[in-house]
TrEMBL record:
Residues 279-298, 310-339 are annotated as: Disordered. This is Zinc transport system permease protein. Keywords: Membrane, Transmembrane, Transmembrane helix, Transport. The lineage of its organism: Bacteria, Bacillati, Actinomycetota, Actinomycetes, Micrococcales. It comes from Terracoccus luteus. It comes from the Bacteria. It holds the Pfam family ABC-3.
Length: 339
């Protein structure tokens, strides 16, 4: 296994996997939150048309894919902002138009063989060039920094658009930024994961992360960890197994998800119920937040979205009809069911 580290293209492939495994789940967490899990898939369709144009015109396919995917991303958000019903149909038209144009155009490329198409669709470790890697590294750094800096705002918008608008966040620009980040991630990932499977690497590690994490930030850390293991492990395995890197990466991510759900299922059965944490809670309650405060034993609950929330360490608990828990009770995933 270790000999692969001395192979030039494997070094590049592993480095690319490192980049992709980090940024794909970072962007994906907001897509999961916005319930747009499959939008990366659609962006992949559009990017394919860009790849095809790049191959036919002998321009850089990566650049062409980037330009087209980003343009489609902006267009989609503008259409979505104008109304939901037409927006969904417009999405489908753009995505199907993208893949159809990609397939037709690529058939006219000088080396437009099915194999050539396959490596963009399913990923191929052999195709990462040194010059591509530099571009990918720069793009990945931009994605990671932008996502990290805008994290609270993207979270607020993805979580509750109405609320974000009410507190004066620029909802449309933030949605456009997220769409552009998604499009860029798709292009960065296309050589390693492939355009058809990149959506999976944005979503599946987040699904696994949400099983173990109790808060948004720990969910993000877990998702990146799962993404890194899947991407680097998948590339490493695809070499001796002689399989497409994209499929291997995604199968590994799915396997991690399955193992995680079995393990978390077992620990919660052995250790009793977790106490009810307020899910996806981005709002900080306090005297001036405007939510009605209700005294509840030794602490204060806030009435929020029809629930009662109580501050508990770094998160908020649901304190509905299920009674009260003491403030000095240790927070453990293994504490027993509350009275
Ligand atoms: Zn509040
Ligand atoms: Zn709340
Ligand atoms: Zn708690
Ligand atoms: Zn309470």
């Amino acid at each position: 296994m270790l000999e692969m580290l001395s192979i030039d293209f494997m070094q590049r492939a592993l480095l690319a996997a490192l980049l992709v495994g980090t940024v794909a789940p970072m962007v994906g967490i907001f897509l999961v939150q916005r319930r747009l899990a499959l939008i990366g898939d659609g962006m992949g369709h559009v990017a394919l048309a860009g790849v095809a144009i790049g191959l036919v015109t002998n321009q850089a396919p990566v650049l062409a894919a980037l330009v087209l995917a980003v343009a489609a991303a902006v267009l989609i958000e503008l259409l979505r902002a104008r109304g939901r019903t037409n927006g969904d149909v417009a999405l489908a038209v753009i995505f199907y138009g993208g893949i159809a144009a990609g397939v037709v155009i690529i058939s006219k490329a000088p080396d437009g063989t099915p194999a050539n198409l396959m490596k963009y669709l399913f990923g191929s470790i052999l195709t990462t060039q040194r010059s591509d890697l530099v571009v990918f590294a720069v793009l990945a750094a931009v994605i990671a920094v932008t996502t990290w800096l805008l994290r609270p705002r993207l979270f607020a918008v993805a979580n509750d658009e109405e609320y974000a608008r009410a507190v004066g966040l620029p909802v449309l620009p933030l949605n456009i930024v997220l769409a552009v980040l998604t499009a860029t991630t798709v292009v960065v990932a296309m050589r390693v994961v492939g355009l058809l499977l990149i959506s999976a690497l944005m979503i599946v590690p987040n699904a696994a992360g949400q099983l173990v994490a109790r808060s948004f930030s720990s969910g993000l850390r877990w998702a990146v960890a799962f993404g890194l293991v899947s991407a680097v492990g998948g590339v490493a395995l695809s070499y001796p197994l002689n399989t497409p890197s994209g499929g291997t990466i995604v199968l590994l991510a799915v396997a991690l998800f399955v193992v995680t759900s079995v393990v978390t299922g077992l620990t919660s059965r052995l250790g009793g119920h977790r106490h009810p944490v307020a899910e996806r809670h981005d709002h900080e309650h306090g005297d001036t937040c405007g939510h009605p405060a209700v005294a509840h034993g030794d602490h204060v609950d806030y009435v929020h979205d029809g629930h009662r929330h109580a501050a508990h360490e770094s998160h908020y608990d649901e304190h509905g009809h299920h009674g009260h828990h003491g403030a000095d009770e240790p927070e453990q995933t293994t504490t027993g069911a509350r009275p």
